[in-house]
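Long-time lurker. I teach an intro course on protein structure, and each term I like to show students one example going from raw sequence to a predicted 3D structure in token notation. This year I'd like something fresh instead of my usual example. Would anyone be willing to generate the tokens for the chain below so I can use it in lecture? Attribution to the forum is fine with me.
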Amino acid sequence: MSHTAETLQLLAPDGRLVENESAERYKPIVDGLDESLLQSFHRTMSVIRAFDIEAGNLQRQGQLALWIPSLGQEAAQVGSGYAARPQDHIFPAYREHAVGHIRGLDVVQIIAMLRGLSHGGWVPEEVGNFHLYTLVIGSQTLHATGYAMGVQFDGLIGTGDADRDTAVMVYFGDGATSQGDVNEAFVFAQSYRTPQVFFLQNNHWAISVPVSVQSRTPLFHRPAGFGIPSVQIDGNDVLASYAVTLESLDAARSGEGPRFIEALTYRMGAHTTSDDPTKYRADDEVESWRRRDPIARFETYLRGLGASETFFADVAQEAADFAADARRRTLALEPPAAESMFAHVYSEQHPLMDAQREWLRSYEASFGGDA
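-- Reply from a regular --
Happy to contribute to a lecture. Here you go:
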């Protein structure tokens, strides 16, 4: 299910700004973007793509159990990620590497988690309120809705203080819309008018099931049925992703209730490295989306604004260095101490954990020597 007449696009695939009535509404936002932020869009998309490819290579070489590619979805993530304020809370699914990077997450922590070297991932408050990845499809929408209800109860919306008013944004995929959790989240979000944005990355494939089987109508029509204002955007257009998310988060923070964004994009790679998309996808479909590549599109736009060859060369080098550093640090990762499994099970020291820790020490000591 591709673009419809209602799909918002601000930057066409050929790198030109779109001029129509729908785009005109967001022109002030686009015009207000300074050169630094525009360059950050391109830099982040390029760096994360290089890292993503390198992580996939590391998995194929046996360095981690699984990798979840984000190739092709960079614009949807980068635009929306930069639209959030520092105090906002982000609930990802498991493919939002670019958003995590924007919020301050060391992406090697994702590799460590998928290598089985951490007990959960990271502490959200230490990485820009970027919460943990979840492989339980759609469950994060309920987590986000509950958190947004808490934000509301704490009075952190509608005060007019830009540094205090808080929104919650949750990412999920097209396949997750068939989960009961997601629909339950819609019910509670609208009933309590929570300060949150549902951000659907419709990459057209829920593993091997196409979105045309998931829904006979555009997915952004579903939350509208719950009373949640919704919009469908070109997810390979970083300007549209930024502008619409900025507007939606502002509305949520001001107390206007939840918003829903469907970003039409495409998963260029496999669902995960355990998947072979050639078994269920046609080559001509993949090629048609390759021609809509979000990074190439934005590069053309920046060149039209006068960006120099030096800038693009520097970004390419930065991306290569970032990927190489991720490889080096991945190969240097060490297994955690066995006793770490007893930490953070309870918020305070607990006698059951103490007993189990002592049992493990005694058991290992029973082998004698260095065994």
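Some talking points for your students: The chain has two domains: 21-336, 337-371. The two ends are 58 Å apart (CA to CA).
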